[in-house]
Records
---
Amino acid sequence: MPVRGNRDCRCQGKWADVKRREQAVPCGRPSPAARRRSAGARRAGFTLIELLAAMAILVMIVLMLGQLFTDASRAWTQGHRNVLVNGNARAALEVMAREIAAVGADETLSFRVLNGASTNLGYVSDKLDLVTLSYTPAMAATGLTNAYRAGAQVGYYVARMDTNTLFYINRYRILRRETLIFNAVTYRGYVTNVWWDGSWASQGGVSLLENVRCFSVTVYGRDGLPYLNSYTSSVSGPPGWIDVRVSLLGDDDAIKVAVMGGNTAEAIQYADQKAVWFSRRIYLDEVRGYNVLRGGGW
């Protein structure tokens, strides 16, 4: 009678046979255990190609974010410059409009626009001389007893910025000059209709607007037609209204144009792209009631 072994022994023998079969390695084929160990080893880290691909993607993301930041910064800077240019231009035009609106334009208090007085960065600029009646002199403070109505001789013209500094060569501005005291040598607006001649012409002025490319003044007669050449109220009669136009560059753009040589073809082309125009139409208050025919006569 055969002797039967313990059941546990039989189970252990079966598991031993299974392990031996799993460890058997057929020719050219890894065992299941070896495959599991190999897969685990591969999951333990990244290959060099995977690392390089991840780094390339990261670099691309950083570059894209950097470009977005640069574009946003450039747009903000340009917007800030535009705000400054707009503010300066509007403030200067407001000053001119207030004084031009109160101009005295007749055969004595003559008002003049000299077309083509200067050429700046490819454009010709005008010169404006007027007697504005927008002032009230402090007679007690000045001690004057023989002053006429509060009027000031005012001139606007384009001139170079500080030529003693290399930084400002080939850059221009609008200067405003004024004579208010009646008994001054240069105050002749009430005694001659060419008061802008003589010592007045050699006066300097206060900078009203910088980085100017063009300053243009167009005078319209009472018939609505523009005077295409230089205008003088003592010859042509009082004007109907006046258009003032100013072309400005931003500070950085003005420096670039100056470095390019100012009036060179390259500088003029760059200024054409960057310059901004501002305009103001001014209706006159002091000439109401005048009756004038086109071509002269009062």
---
Amino acid sequence: MVLLVISPFFGIVAWEIKRDSPGPVFYHGRRAGRGGGATAPLPNFSSYAASKAGLARLAETLAEELKPFNIQVNVIAPGMVDTRLQDEVLQAGNRAGGLYEKIKLARETGKGAVSPEIAADLAVFLASEASGKLTGKLIAAPYDPWREWEGKGDELNATPMYTLRRLDPLTIKPLIGKLEVGDGEWTTLPPSSPFHFSILNLKRV
């Protein structure tokens, strides 16, 4: 839970510099993109997982607070990068739950392992003009198509994509790009939209 103490401190620092130093702020979210705690349960790592979810919500809240000062706040989820935490998981063995087998496999075969350069490239993108005003997002460096986002910051900001949300009929409709427009009829974003994807067995609630 230490991140829940340290991260607000950095948020306060950003608040203090907002008048004179517009630009990007990004947090390191570990494996938040694919079940690393922020977006899915991580058994046997409850404090770690809670801190990651808290970090994502903190960043999104700060993003809204700091918009008037041209400060963008995002979270980078780097994927399964080889770190000291992996050493500790391997030392814990089966006490680390399912994460133990995943990290053991990554160390032995490379399956699922992610190069730290990928997250570094995302950080460069977020710090550049190419990312525009993109803010309040939890971005999985190895999995999300952020390399295609140049000039699309405003479009992304207008959607709940790449954020933490409770899924219900109200929130899921804009997520999947479908809106009910009559008695059982649906409209869909065109395939060319960066937010278009298909969903099977979509039913009215």
